[in-house]
Design a protein that fits this description.
Helix content: under 10%
Number of helices: 2
Order of helices and strands: HEEEEEEEEEEEEEEEEEEHEEEEEEEE
Strand content: 35-45%
CATH topology of the largest domain: Immunoglobulin-like
Number of strands: 26
Number of domains: 2
Shape: elongated
Distance between the termini: 80 Å
Protein name: Arrestin-like N-terminal domain-containing protein
Structural class: mainly beta
CATH class of the largest domain: Mainly Beta
Largest sheet: 10 strands, mixed
């Protein structure tokens, strides 16, 4: 075989190895930049038994945290520790999650188990006669749960009260418990198996609730403000979605008013950031002049505004899932969790009046919308024009509803995010201070 056609591996070939730099050159472009991961919290949360002989230690927590906090795909990790392990016959760790819906009027309660994970850490036998001083564990939290043959994402810690007839109290809570069983030393036990009833005779329980706080973030950032052209209104782009409606005139001599509301097309917003919008009214000069006293920036002697853009949250409870005379038997409440401010856009033409503004969210909101069994939470932007005296108003009322979603975190420029643990990027948002997350 001839070797004349084989490539040469001389030194000049090695000189063509490309060089790399930390920052791109003028002719190069960075496709994606993955952020450096910040370390997980290194503090411990400790709960001791009443007698002080057993300690439940949960790791990877913030220092001085009131209750442990976990998110999506997290593991509840830690150790069960003893000062005197003598006499211990078994050690078990259990994680529980429950959705409880209590009907106030009739006193009934519906309970859905969200998760139930147990792990036997140690039991006494011939090979292990003495319990160790410390037993470590790491139990994963599930991503979903199943109720009446339907699967739902694991919901956050939450509670809400719905007034009415009947009224309801809905609660979602989670807990982790260490169960330490000791030898009975001749004490007779009941004939009924206590474990089948959830009772552990002669056992020590060390339990603490924890907050389940799944984190989410928008896939795209808030777009740049729309450009405005005198006489033509806002110039539409793909980053903004248009919602059109009509203010119908009650006079045959005045035309109707076309209303154009623009919000970011993704309709997913961080709950700690305001939601921008643009609003345009288009009609004849006469119709617009009649409408201006009802506009969003008009002086109003009463506290109630005629033209409003709000972010509303609807919480619904339905434990029966039935119809009564063709009507659902569920009950709900609606809360305003954000209110818009308006500013008049300069340079309006004779046939358009335009506004820009932001919906400022209520800082009390801690969890995004979710659905779990008979409990659901939904968010929507509601644009209304409601005159103080509808019978005498020159235009009919208007109501536009736009479903949106809230996220716990803001968007970050991480490109494709390959290899990024989104659950632990940057500083985490602050969960509520109490042991349950209100809406």
């Amino acid at each position: 075989m001839s070797t004349a056609s084989l490539p040469s591996y001389a030194e000049p070939i090695l000189n063509r190895t490309p060089s790399y730099s930390l920052e791109p050159h003028f002719h190069e472009q960075r496709i994606a930049l993955v952020e450096r991961l910040r370390p997980r919290p290194s503090g411990d949360f400790i709960k001791e038994s009443k007698g002080g002989g057993v300690r439940l230690r949960l790791t990877a927590q913030e220092d001085n945290v009131e209750l442990p906090v976990y998110g999506t795909t997290d593991h509840v990790a830690g150790a069960v520790e003893f000062t005197k392990p003598e006499g211990v016959s078994s050690v078990e760790v259990k994680i529980e999650g429950r959705l409880r819906i209590k009907e106030i009027a009739e006193g009934g309660t519906a309970i859905a188990k969200l998760c139930l994970t147990t792990s036997m850490l140690w039991f006494k036998d011939h090979a292990n006669p003495i319990c160790p001083l410390s037993l470590g564990f790491s139990l994963p939290l599930p991503n979903t749960f199943t109720y009446t043959d339907k699967t739902y994402p694991l919901p956050p810690t939450f509670d809400v009260k719905l007034s009415g007839l009947p009224g309801f109290i809905a609660t979602i809570d989670y807990s982790v418990t260490a169960i330490v069983t000791k030898e009975n030393h001749g004490v007779p036990l009941p004939k009924v198996k206590s474990r089948a009833l959830g009772i552990h005779i002669g056992a020590t329980h060390v339990s603490t609730p924890f907050k389940y706080f799944p984190r989410t973030r928008p896939a795209v950032p808030i777009p740049l403000p729309m450009q405005y052209r005198v006489g033509a209104g806002f110039l539409a782009t793909s980053d903004w979605k248009l919602f059109e409606s009509t203010l119908y005139s009650k006079s045959q001599t005045r035309p109707n008013i076309a209303v154009k509301l623009y919000i970011p097309a993704s309709r997913v917003f961080c709950m700690t950031q305001p939601i921008p919008f643009h609003l345009t009214f288009e009609s004849s000069a006469v119709s617009l002049a009649v409408f201006l006293p009802f506009g969003p920036t008009a002086a109003n002697p009463t506290a109630r505004k005629v033209t409003r853009i709000q972010l509303l949250r609807q919480t619904t409870v339905d434990v029966r899932n039935t119809l009564l005379y063709g009507v659902k038997t569920d009950i709900w409440r609606v809360d305003c969790i954000g209110e818009a401010n308006f500013s008049l856009t300069g340079g309006d033409g004779p046939s358009t009046v335009s506004y820009s503004g932001e919906i400022v969210l209520d800082g009390k909101i801690k969890v995004p919308a979710f659905r779990a069994a008979g409990l659901s939470v939904k968010d929507c932007i509601v644009f209304t024009v409601t005159p103080l005296d509808p019978a005498k108003a020159p235009f009919s009322e208007l109501r536009e509803l736009i479903p949106v979603r809230l996220s716990t975190d803001h968007w970050i420029p991480n490109g494709a995010g390959i290899g990024v643990d989104h659950e632990h990027l940057w500083d985490p948002p602050t969960p509520p201070n109490d042991n349950r997350t209100s809406q």
